[in-house]
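Now for a chain:

_____
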Amino acid sequence: MTLVVKRPEKRVEVCLDGSLQAEWEAAEAALAEARQRKLLDARLVDSVQPLAKAVREIEDKAREESVTFLLRGMPRHVWDAFVADHPEREGHDLDKAYGYNTETIFDAVLAHKLPASITAEVPPTIVSVTKQDGTAVPFAPAEWQAFADELTNAQYGSFQVAVNEINRGRTNVPFSPAAYRETRSSGKK
């Protein structure tokens, strides 16, 4: 075959220090309050800058405490084998909508627990884990379950959405209207 297919990839970012969310919300609320006071009295501008800086510092800290998982879709016969291994549960509307057991399939895919029907070597869905500076973080598929057990449902949901999108979602040629508008020539010289 002369055509080479690279399967779709998706990134999932996880902040490992969830306590920073509450800290950020408090700082953001203080900033919003100071900005409101500034609208009433422009002389209060000095109180806004330090609060804005504090919000940015928390955002920087959260980025430092975050890792990015790069996930790659799998060949359709492998995905189909996972779906067959994780049939929808009777009476579960979500399972019925997706056509598989939504409670078990994602952990199996991310932990790289291949169905018995797959005998060929298949690369794991988790391609890499990196810090925000690009430094690789060692992570083996066998570590997935322990990691996933510590995630909130919201964090875990990001992985569910990504796995579903790279294996079942639409993967059209990307097009950004915003980038197009910014880069097209205006015709004026």
Q: What stands out?
A: The chain has a mean pLDDT of 91.
